[in-house]
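Recall that a protein's primary structure is simply its ordered list of amino acids. Everything else, from secondary elements to tertiary packing, is in principle encoded there. The following example makes that idea concrete.
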Amino acid sequence: MAQINITNVSKIYAGGVEAVKSVSIDIADGEFIVLVGPSGCGKSTLLRMVAGLETISKGTVEIGDRIVNDVEPAERDIAMVFQNYALYPHMTVYDNLAYGLKNRGTPKAEIDARVAEAARMLQLEQYLDRKPRALSGGQRQRVAMGRAIVRKPAAFLFDEPLSNLDAKLRVSMRGEIKQLQKRLGTTSLYVTHDQLEAMTLADRLVVLNGGEIEQIGRPLDVYHTPASTFVASFIGSPAMNLVRANREGNRLHLGSQIIEADRLSSLPTDLTVGIRAEDLRLANPGEQSLTLKIGYVEELGAQRLVHGTIDGKQLTAALSPEIELGDTIALTIAPSRLHFFDTTTGKRLVLALDTPDTGRQAVNKLQAAIG
């Protein structure tokens, strides 16, 4: 096992096209890091540079205690799992698992022991004599993972390994991958465009956009405190509602409708307000509310997604399925659940009083808290 340090790494193709732009990530020993972002954001290119399958234009990649920029892939002590399984069709499952070890001259007794251990972990014991064509997609992916496990590498690299599986199998397989990684404790770097998969698997997420890092953090931190409108719209299902608003004093104007809250005066007069669908609820009589004109409803069983408009601005609310709906409903949200973003840059805005207290302010707050 080993830590991975990616420092100011860039990938520049012919014609000056910069696919990855000065990315830096420090991955701790045993940590599970997920690179997530839309197609073309540079996540697979970055993974392939760590693997040695792409040359590094600028910066360094360090695995363990050595810089590996000029080290051949086979000498980097990493194992890679691809989305297309990359199994040898003419070999049995046993031979696919053992192939890399045989090439390294590993003694047969040790090969047998490692293959048996991996097969037990992945529930492949009964399939060791079968060829890949006789296996399901999930079983083939287990074999691909087993081939990586038997090598006992310093790090696992996963390039969208579940994208070829159906939805139900993806859910079960990502649970298996997470449990397996915890049990083995192997440093892992995983690429996906599926934000639900990323949230499920990651110790920390790295959200990429246009070859650059938008945010790094624990999944729930990224979800609850997105650093930009891009992250807010990409992480979470449904995506965060993003509504253009104007501020006057402590009032936010969403068209003709108003949200009033304390401490808003430090924000710009023109901004974007972020609202998670699950933070909206039906307003009680007398509460400040927003009138949503319902367009359509998604019935999800335990939850109902209500899509509509507020003064022409699109909004989605996640409500209980027991709620009776008409053409319009009155919704409310706790002001503390609002998110604020700069309309021009898309970056998160922080209220003046949300910054960490220092000095006497911290003492006063502590004294108030303890009575």
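Residues 8 and 22 are 4 Å apart (CA to CA). The mean pLDDT is 90.
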